[in-house]
Amino acid sequence: MSLLSFDGSSMGTPDELSHPVHDLIGVGFGPSNLALAIAAVEHNDGAGDGDRVAVRFFERQQSFGWHRGMLLEDATMQVSFLKDLVTMRNPTSGFSFLAYLHENGRLVDFINHKTLFPLRLEFHGYLEWAAARVADLVDWGHEVVSIEPVISQDEVVAVDVTARELTADGNGREVTYRARNVVIGTGLQPRFPEGISGSAHVWHNHQLLHRVEEIDVDAARRFVVVGAGQSAAEVTAFLHERFTAAEVVSVFSRYGYSPSDDTPFANRIFDPEAVDDFYDAPAEVKQMLTGYHSNTNYSVVDGDLIEELYRRQYQEKVTGHERLTMMNVSRVEAVREQADQVSVTVRSLATGRSVDMDADLAVFATGYDHVDPRPLLGDLAPDCRLDAEGRLKVQRDYRVETSPGIRAGIYLQGGTEHTHGLSSALLSTIAVRSGEILTSVVGARAQAARSRGAKAPAAALRAFLR
Ligand SMILES: Cc1cc2nc3c(=O)[nH]c(=O)nc-3n(C[C@H](O)[C@H](O)[C@H](O)COP(=O)(O)OP(=O)(O)OC[C@H]3O[C@@H](n4cnc5c(N)ncnc54)[C@H](O)[C@@H]3O)c2cc1C
Question: Which residues are CB-contacts of 291 (< 8 A; sequence separation ≥ 6)?
């Protein structure tokens, strides 16, 4: 296997540029860019010298981590393990979840388990295992702070991607790599309802496992959990189980938790072909499809977990010791930090009446927003084309549409729900999407080489593009 972590010597150096140039720099190293790194490694394995791609990634975490704050012990994946980093692109890859199980001596046990949905903890183990195998392509503990255009003869021919090393003393040095393409895979950022922000006793659910040890198991009396999605239900169940002397109040505007639709016909909305259908559809059809099928992912809960929470609540009614309460058709209006707790005001949307309650902690499981890449793109941002609603225009190959004269490619992994559909923020298509991005990058390089009169790409490249 050839891992191309470049010192510059093996990179192409276009005539007009004095620096060594990577084919691709990835911003962020979550599952999406990890899948891309593997696609690059597998491409390079079969490629001749001139056809290899030079790739490198920046990740601000010090080591690989996938939503660690929500790696609850019994939480399971919401997607089949077959939608791992590689299988949908290359079923024979040595980077599959099955290869991981095999290497870790659990393949037979897993088969007997008869599930498509492993524990999130186990899938995290898989992702870590895969990341460790390509770790030399990553600068860990580096936060990308700018992406600057490199101009030659009035064209943007490359970008300089600068990252700051995150050190305890805050004096980390800056590193800049030059690349023909940048792939932004910076994921999601936690969202609070308007007017509410995090504090000592007001958390977003992504912080849960990082901070839960701060709360004394014997002393805690009440928790408020806000939201009706999968994370909210998981947090409710977790707090109820861990803090056996405390009341857990779940607040949401729905009448009850709604189940996620993971039935087979609906699930096809996450197929690679569905991306084509969605991409080619008119704007109103895109909107319609997103509306019809948002209950495959948003504000919905796994059916088994709904049953489990109901079972617990009913059992408490029978025993007369009620700790699990649902405040449905309700909203949190305000939170006020107090010395050792938080005061939460909840208003019933049905009656209009409000109640105040004190709690040891309020956890907002109120979702995530995609991180807008434009601030990072700096001077390049005005050259990115927007649709009528001010969203980035993105080509089918995930390349942002730019003004003429921008030869450097800006690709997105995530943040393309408006163009490519519901799978954009999920794991479902990351294997295929990464292959498509790499194919586009390799194809553009071959095209540029051809137009410079260079030799056509070798057989290995053609095989990969097929
Ligand atoms: C609790 C939880 C459970 C989920 N479970 C599932 C599931 O079961 N199935 C499913 O399909 N989806 C699930 N999702 C959706 C989730 O978006 C995807 O699983 C996945 O995380 C997408 O990968 P990503 O690489 O695009 O983004 P992320 O995993 O968010 O990774 C982005 C990475 O970029 C890094 N980064 C950000 N900014 C910078 C910067 N400026 N410089 C350097 N690095 C940066 C971050 O540190 C992070 O590591 C879940 C989401 C959550 C929150």
Answer: none
Looking at the domain assignment, is residue 319 inside a domain?
yes
58 lines ligand 1 (CB under 6 A): yes
Between the CA of 414 and the centroid of ligand 1 the distance, in Å, is 9
Residue 141 pLDDT:
98
Give residue 279's domain range. Answer: 264-296
Residue whose token pair is 């004269």: 405
Domain endpoint, select from 364, 391, 415: 364
- Which ligand 1 atom minimizes the distance to the CA of 32? 25
Q: Return the ligand 1 atom nearest residue 376 CA.
A: 41
User: Is residue 15 a part of any domain in this protein?
Assistant: no
DSSP string, 65-99: -SSGGG--TT-B-SS-TTSSSSTTT-TT-TTSHHH
- The pLDDT assigned to 395 comes to 98
For ligand 1, atom 31, name the residue with the nearest CA: 30
For residue 59 and ligand 1, the question of a CB distance below 6 A is answered with: yes
**pLDDT tens-digit map of 61-97:** 999 999 999 999 999 999 999 999 999 999 999 999 9
Same domain, yes or no, for 121 and 202?
no
Picking from 442, 432, 435, 370, the residue whose alpha carbon sits closest to that of residue 409 is: 442
Report how far apart, in Å, the C-alpha atoms of 78 and of each of 81, 82, 355, 454 are.
9, 12, 35, 47
* Residue 451 confidence (pLDDT): 83
Integer Cα distance of 256 and 285 in angstroms: 29
Residue nearest to ligand 1 atom 53, measured at CA? 67
For residue 193, the SS3 value is: coil
Q: Which residue ranges in the chain fall short of pLDDT 50?
A: 1-16, 455-466
> What is the whole-number distance in angstroms between the Cα of residue 144 and the centre of ligand 1?
16
pLDDT tens for 302-337 read 999 999 999 999 999 999 999 999 999 999 999 999
pLDDT recorded at residue 113? 97
Q: What is the CA 349 to chain-centroid distance, rounded?
A: 33
Domain end (from 324, 340, 364): 364
| CATH classification at residue 220 | 3.50.50.60
